[in-house]
């Protein structure tokens, strides 16, 4: 099971990243758990300075921008 984490304080881009990540995982047919990390100190512990950020299995894959659905699917594979 993949662990998908959305790092952000709840801004519109963070919400969109959550929607896209769920859609990508469903399209790929993978089992996943989704966690929203909203605590600024926890986000900083990932080394992320700009949100939104996407982490998969504890590794930050993108930060500071909203990736496309296809890009997220590639990151989840």
User: Roughly what is the average pLDDT, rounded to an integer?
Assistant: 97
Ranges where pLDDT stays below 50 over 5 or more residues in a row are none
Count of individual beta strands: 4
CATH names the topology as Glutaredoxin
Identify the CATH homologous superfamily: Glutaredoxin
User: Biggest sheet: strands, sense, closure?
Assistant: 4 strands, mixed
Quickly give the structural class: alpha+beta
Helix content: 40-55%
Straight-line distance between termini:
12 Å
Domain count: 1
User: How large a portion of the residues is in β-strands, by DSSP E?
Assistant: 25-35%
What can you tell me about this protein's structure?
By secondary structure, the protein is an alpha+beta fold. It has a single domain (2-76), classed as 3-Layer(aba) Sandwich (Glutaredoxin), CATH 3.40.30. The protein has helices at 12-28, 40-45, 69-76; strands at 2-7, 32-37, 53-56, 59-63. It has a four-stranded mixed sheet. Strand 3 and strand 4 (59-63) form a beta hairpin. The longest helix has 17 residues, at 12-28. The chain is globular, with a radius of gyration of 11 Å. The mean pLDDT is 97.
């Amino acid at each position: 099971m993949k662990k998908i984490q959305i790092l952000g304080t709840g801004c519109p881009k963070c919400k969109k990243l959550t929607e896209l990540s769920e859609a990508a995982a469903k399209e790929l047919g993978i089992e996943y758990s989704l966690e929203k990390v909203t605590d600024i100190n926890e986000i900083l512990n990932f080394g992320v300075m700009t949100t939104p950020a996407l982490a998969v299995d504890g590794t930050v894959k993108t930060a500071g921008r909203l990736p496309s659905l296809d890009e997220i699917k590639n990151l989840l594979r």
